[in-house]
């Protein structure tokens, strides 16, 4: 049985993301998913930040944010959260240190084999993986001079990106070696493919899989089976969920060219809060 720490995306929370990947959880018979909440609660004003981009996508920020506010009032479990709040230029991640301490507490409570993150959670998963390899970068992360947890055996980053913040500079200088599966959506307009590739540059031990869908965890049958197999045995050789190609996990390399018959669909919805990560 593998135990996996799960980090939700921006504007989601543990309950929301757990439901979003319900089909994957059912597929994973030998994996325990542990979902935790990000510490920063988003307000309606946080959900309206890029009206020009929203208009391009045919969305109205005011309506979406108002709907989110009403939903939260009727059901607290829908409270949108974030691991940090970015500035307009995406050169700072405000509140990142607080989130690191939240993860530290989770790591002290139990042993995790790996970490699984989506969107901002995927970006944060890479930060945590890198920090466990070089914990001296942030002394408050240490416990009696030692890291709170061994380095992860693996990391899964779906729609991930490289966090740009001075805090992360020393982490990215060395990069990180935790074996990482990067899942990228070819039509993702929230975290575009080029942005995900920046994370690949600092991920030294990687496998890359692409799907034709957008900003969500792919949930078609081949993808569920592939992710379940990877999470249960990340060091094994698993057939790619796209194109029928085989990319040995042991090599952690090779980008698969997707084919139409495996175009992925998912339950993730595009909301204003997901547009600026």
From TrEMBL:
GO cellular component: cytoplasm; nucleus
InterPro entries on file: AB_hydrolase_fold, FSH-like_dom, LovG
Leader peptide range in chain numbering: none
Keyword annotations from UniProtKB, A to Z: Hydrolase
Record-annotated Serine hydrolase domain positions: 2-225
A Pfam family the protein falls into: FSH1
Protein's UniProt name: Serine hydrolase domain-containing protein
Native organism: Coprinopsis marcescibilis
